[in-house]
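Workshop exercise sheet. Pairs work together: one partner reads the sequence aloud, the other fills in the structure field after running the prediction. Swap roles for the next sheet.
Pair: D.N. / O.F.
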Amino acid sequence: MLINAQAAQEFGTCSFSAIIPNPRTDTPEGVVKQLQETLKAYAEEHRDAPVIRGLGWDRTWFNGGLQGIIRLFTRHDIDAVVPDKPAVLLSFCGHLAMLNTKALEAAGVTKDTDDQNGLIVREADGSPSGYISEPSAFRPIIFRIPGYEFSPKEHYECQKKAFAMMNELGFTLLCDCQQAESPYTILSEMAKNGEFTARVSGVHNVNDVTREADMEKAIANRTKFDVGDLFTVNTVKYFADGTLSMIEPYLETSLTHKPGTREPLLWDEEHMMESMALANKEGFNIHTHLRLHTSE
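Structure field:
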């Protein structure tokens, strides 16, 4: 249950959750039109917003999940309705971001930007398509966009809504899986002020490229956000994979992936084992994002 930045993304952005395509009758092109209509209406209602934020599209709509049709979703689709300001649309799973041209420009993403092992998807001429995979790649990028970060007030209001929704569903213990500094600060204040209606367990994120600095920060901030047993951040989170961690390569019958290929890990295995050993030595719990898949 994401109760930090995702709360703001869920309750303070343009939501595409009402778009539920029929895989037998709908097409990617039709879904793009629905996305554009929803986004256009939201942008018109929020003309003063420096950045248009969105959440809820699904990669399966574009990689063959609708009648087996593959149709790329790119920045140009967003530019058609939001051409004059940055727009950032996150997928419902939280692993993908789509940025329009203005957002890429504001973040300084160009042909020359390191593609981070393919996480920043390119067009044929090398230009960024707007499609960026995994929080470790897109979070530093989108937070460089002026005006993208939610204000403390926005975070607070959205956290309250998130708690209310979770309580209605009967949840009393929530496990967060993506730390963000500002929301965690707000959550600590809420816990201290008696505004928690569920216990929350948070994490310290550690990524391969920045693993040493991330672990140092986790150790230094071990109890920074803790408030009794209401809010505890005593876990180190590793995004080991993005889509799927492969044991066997995709089969010849795969519709959405190149046969014979495997999904790459986001971590060097030796680096991850060394970092996990240090986290264990420091007394942290370990949370690993790893989904094993044998074939398709």
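Discussion prompt: The chain has a mean pLDDT of 88. What would you look at next?
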